[in-house]
Amino acid sequence: MQESSPAGRVEELRELLRKYDYSYYVLDDPQVADFEYDRLYAELKRLEEEHSELTTPDSPTRRVGGRPLEGFAQVAHGEPMLSLDNSYSEEELIEFDRRIARGLGEEGPFDYVAELKFDGLGVSLRYENGVFVQGATRGDGRTGEDVTANLRTVRSLPLKLKGENLSPPLPGLLEVRGEVYMTRSGLERVNAQRREAGEPEFANPRNSAAGSLRLLDSSLTAKRPLKLFIYQLLGAGWPGARPRFYSHSQVLSWLKEAGFPVNPNWCSCVGIKQVIGYCRRWAELREELDYNIDGVVVKLDHLDLRERLGRTSKAPRWAMAYKFAAEQARTRLLAIEIQVGRTGALTPTARLEPVFLAGTTVSNATLHNEDEIERKDIRVGDWVWIEKGGDIIPKVTAVDLKARPADSQPYRMPDSCPVCGSRAVREPGEVVRRCSNAACPAQVKERIRHFTSRGAMDIEGAGPALVDQVVEKDLVRDVAGLYTLNKEELAGLERMGEKSAENLLAGIEDSKRRGAARLLFAL
DNA sequence: AGAAGAGTTT
DNA sequence: AGACCCTAGA
DNA sequence: TCTAGGGTCTAAACTCTTCT
């Protein structure tokens, strides 16, 4: 290779390394031996050091850079990151199809795109003139955290997009959404190293991916085997006079051409029957993948039809997630514990003999309410079946009656509050039983907790333990009491040093700048 | 060094 | 992120 | 009578900061 100038050679090397990165990390198809790649990388690094004027943020050498962050900045999403409606059966998919026909006033069959539903964490990425400039977590859907430095280390994330021969061409500003995940083999590899180093192992790919993205030191993130799939382009097809895209399948092809890692297993389907076939197929094949999926995402393909259907406040009407059947486990129900919420509602939860299920050790589960326990005749001492709703929240689904102890008794909900002893009343027509004492410490604490929570006044440093103490010590009787706390009072609390007290008071001060809407919700 | 507590994610 | 319940409105 | 929307519950893993 004959280089004309350092600048030319640098650009040549970058192009080459980008190409090799893409083959290796996106296509899983290495084009060169490691030592050849390392040689080119070293040469580029040397040239960039010798000619510092040539360094650019989209160079393959710049995936890790700089010092650890102090914290993550907040990023407002241009469009909210919504969730999807869920379905758990083929009947529900057929109902979804009917709802679309009704909504559009048209007969099917409709064109759908079926994709795998990855089990990772959602991210939103921004590109300016084809260069990756910012990446954020989902957060509450409206505002997330700026994890750009960590995302830069994800090798399948293109720092620079391929602009040539793209039709339509790359826009100046571009935002895409996708899922960061860790492969099963990647997790094994990391855990082998951690075992070796005497460090605790990670429990499952999803949580290790989520944790890895929250490291303040991106050089550590770089050592975690994170990967990425992109599945959404924002604003595709509108606004603007002429739609640039007509269908989601066209968008997916375009994303791939632009250099994004698009999962190859998506499928165009004509009619819901073909979608169901796809779901059945992947319920079987999922075990063969090196990454976890928890279902299938079904989307109407044509963008103009999507626009006509619109969305509800929490999810688009033109898409549906189909969730695979959840794993189950059998364990012993040790006790039923009653928790008292901020509205006084008594909610039963199950204490379980710990059991490993779908990547976590489960020792608690929700029992929803009194009627639910009665319906399923759940008793303390029973062997019960549990599963995780949406792979997240454990719940008791059934009792193994054959294993029931002979002396077991039906469960009776207490008619007094377990915290303050006041009468717990269930109003006619109501499902929940409530503690009748508005001054009940549990209710007071929960009201204050709600007030300080993110989404409400977002007061940093006011967690459950702090609220517990200030209420117990009678320093705070209602939310207004938070604003009269002072350093001397705080100094008397457990685990409350100078730094913590300062941080909390700063958090309280900061909360005074929240808007009226937030205040209203907080109360 | 180790643990508690808070915050964030699914 | 799911399940459930209640309310309001078609 | 159905359903969209809002509210209120629930569990576990992980990282970071601060305290002991």
Automatic annotation (TrEMBL):
<dbReference type="InterPro" id="IPR013839">
    <property type="entry name" value="DNAligase_adenylation"/>
</dbReference>
<dbReference type="InterPro" id="IPR010994">
    <property type="entry name" value="RuvA_2-like"/>
</dbReference>
<comment type="function">
    <text>DNA ligase that catalyzes the formation of phosphodiester linkages between 5'-phosphoryl and 3'-hydroxyl groups in double-stranded DNA using NAD as a coenzyme and as the energy source for the reaction. It is essential for DNA replication and repair of damaged DNA.</text>
</comment>
<dbReference type="InterPro" id="IPR004150">
    <property type="entry name" value="NAD_DNA_ligase_OB"/>
</dbReference>
<dbReference type="Pfam" id="PF01653">
    <property type="entry name" value="DNA_ligase_aden"/>
</dbReference>
<dbReference type="GO" id="GO:0005829">
    <property type="term" value="C:cytosol"/>
</dbReference>
<protein>
    <recommendedName>
        <fullName>DNA ligase</fullName>
        <ecNumber>6.5.1.2</ecNumber>
    </recommendedName>
</protein>
<dbReference type="GO" id="GO:0046872">
    <property type="term" value="F:metal ion binding"/>
</dbReference>
<dbReference type="GO" id="GO:0003911">
    <property type="term" value="F:DNA ligase (NAD+) activity"/>
</dbReference>
<keyword id="KW-0227">DNA damage</keyword>
<keyword id="KW-0862">Zinc</keyword>
<dbReference type="InterPro" id="IPR012340">
    <property type="entry name" value="NA-bd_OB-fold"/>
</dbReference>
<dbReference type="InterPro" id="IPR018239">
    <property type="entry name" value="DNA_ligase_AS"/>
</dbReference>
<keyword id="KW-0460">Magnesium</keyword>
<keyword id="KW-0520">NAD</keyword>
<keyword id="KW-0479">Metal-binding</keyword>
<keyword id="KW-0234">DNA repair</keyword>
<comment type="similarity">
    <text>Belongs to the NAD-dependent DNA ligase family. LigA subfamily.</text>
</comment>
<dbReference type="GO" id="GO:0006260">
    <property type="term" value="P:DNA replication"/>
</dbReference>
<dbReference type="Pfam" id="PF03120">
    <property type="entry name" value="OB_DNA_ligase"/>
</dbReference>
<dbReference type="InterPro" id="IPR001679">
    <property type="entry name" value="DNA_ligase"/>
</dbReference>
<feature type="domain" description="NAD-dependent DNA ligase N-terminal">
    <location>
        <begin position="5"/>
        <end position="456"/>
    </location>
</feature>
<dbReference type="InterPro" id="IPR013840">
    <property type="entry name" value="DNAligase_N"/>
</dbReference>
<dbReference type="InterPro" id="IPR033136">
    <property type="entry name" value="DNA_ligase_CS"/>
</dbReference>
<keyword id="KW-0235">DNA replication</keyword>
<dbReference type="InterPro" id="IPR004149">
    <property type="entry name" value="Znf_DNAligase_C4"/>
</dbReference>
<keyword id="KW-0436">Ligase</keyword>
<dbReference type="GO" id="GO:0006281">
    <property type="term" value="P:DNA repair"/>
</dbReference>
<dbReference type="Pfam" id="PF03119">
    <property type="entry name" value="DNA_ligase_ZBD"/>
</dbReference>
